Amino acid sequence: MGRMGLRKAGEKVDFGIHEVEGDNVLLAGEGTASDLATDQAFCVNAANSHYENFLVLSRFTPTPLVESMASVYAWSRYADDLGDEAPFSPEIRARLLKRWAELTRVAHQDGWTGPADHPILTALAAAGRAHNLPLQPFLDLAEAFTMDQGPLEPDSIADLDHYSSLSADPVGRIVLRIHGHDDSKLDAWSDDICTGLQIANLMQDVRRDAGIGRVYIPRDLLSAHNAAESDVLALRPHPGVHAAIVATTNHARDRLRKGRSLVSAVDPHLAVQVDLFARGGEMVVAAILRRNGRTLSHRPRVGRIGRIRLLLAGILASRRLRAME
User: Which residues contact 309 (CB under 8 A, 6 or more apart)?
Assistant: First the structure.
C-alpha cells in the first residue's frame, strides 16, 4: 500500500501523509524534527487551537509548565488522530499506532535521550527529561487507541474500568508528574476522577457510539435489566437500557466522588484545574440522571446555568491565584 493523504487542515495535528509499504510504516512528520524551540512552539499552538474535555492545558497552568503540558497534548492528539483516520482499515490504523508507540519507546531510551525522530517527540522528550516522565502511561494510551479499532463490548463495570485505566487515567498521572507530584495515593485519586469522567462521557454519548457500532454499557447490567446490545444498536427506547445507563452513570458518580480528595492534596494551580475538571464530570452525570438514563434518543448537555457557574468558578479561582502570586 502506497502513500496515504491525511487530515483536513485545522481539524487534526497536520504533518501531511503517512507511508505504508509492505511491512514498513513511515508516519507523517517522521524524520522532520527541527530545533527544540520550533517543535515546542508547534505543540503549544496545537494545544491552543483545540478544546478537549480533559486536563491538558488551561489558563491555570504555570508558565514554566506550558511547553511540557503542550507536548503531552500534542502526543495524545496525534495518537488519537492515528486511531481515527476514517478512510483506512482498523488494521492499518493499528499499525500506525504501533509505530507511534515504537518511536516513543525509542525516544524514552536512557532517560528520554534516545533518538526523537518526530517534532512532537522532540518536545515530549524535553518534557520527559525535565519531569522524569515514565514511559508506561504513553504506551497505555496507545494500547487504548488500538483497542478502539475493534468493538470493546465490556462484560462488566470492571471491564469498563480497565478500559478507562488505559484510555483516561494515564493522562492524569502524566499531569501529576509534570506538576511535581509522584505519590501512589494521589495517583489513585486521579484515576478515580479520570475514570469517572471517561465513563460519564461514554454514557452521555451512547447514541453517537451506537451509530458507529460501539456499545460501552456493560453487558451484565443490560442483561440484569432484560435488555441487550442489540437494543442499544437499534436505538430502541428500552427501559432496561435506560436502567443500565443509570447504573453505569452512578458508578461514574461514585468514582468522581472518591477522587475529590485530590483537590486539597495538590498545588493550588493544579487544584483549580482538578476542581473544574471534576465539576464538569459531575454536571455531565447530573444531566444524564435528570433524563433517567434516556441518552439513546437525545445527548444530554450541561445546562446554561451550569456552564455559567463553571465559568464563574474558574474566574474566581483565577483571581485567587493572581492574588497569591
Answer: none
Residues in contact with 194: Cβ distance below 8 Å, sequence separation at least 6, in sequence order: 54, 164, 168, 169, 171, 172, 259
| Type of residue found at 313 | A
User: Can you read off the three cell numbers belonging to residue 133?
Assistant: 516522565
In sign, the C-alpha dihedral spanning 207, 54, 42, 28 is: negative
Q: Which of 217, 270, 277, 208 is nearest to 52 (CA)?
A: 277
Domain assignment present for residue 86? The answer is yes
Range with lowest mean pLDDT among 53-62, 179-188, 266-275, 308-317: 308-317
Q: Cβ(94)–Cβ(82) under 8 Å?
A: no
Burial class (CB in 10 A: 0-12, 13-18, 19+), 320: exposed
With respect to residue 296, please indicate whether it lies within any of the assigned structural domains.
Answer: yes
CATH number for the domain including 268? Answer: 1.10.600.10
The 10s digit of each residue's pLDDT in 257-271 is: 999 999 999 998 898
Distance CA 42, CA 314 (A): 27
- Amino acid 272: pLDDT: 85
Least confident range of 55-64, 94-103, 188-197, 273-282:
55-64
- The per-residue pLDDT for range 2-46, each reduced to its tens digit, is 333 333 333 456 677 888 888 899 998 999 998 999 999 989 888
Name the domain boundary from 102, 133, 164: 133
Q: Is the same domain home to 120 and 201?
A: no
Given 133, 163, 192, which residue is the final one in a domain?
133
- Residue with C-alpha cell 516513543? 104
Residue 1 domain boundaries? 1-133
* SS3 annotation, 112-148: HCCCCCCHHHHHHHHHHHHHCCCCHHHHHHHHHHHHC
Instruction: Please write the tens of the pLDDT for every residue from 148-180.
Output: 888 888 999 999 999 999 999 999 999 999 999
Same-domain status, 230 and 97: no
Provide the number of structural domains found in the chain. Answer: 2
**Are residues 12 and 113 located together in one domain of the fold?**
yes
3-state secondary structure (DSSP) of residue 20: strand
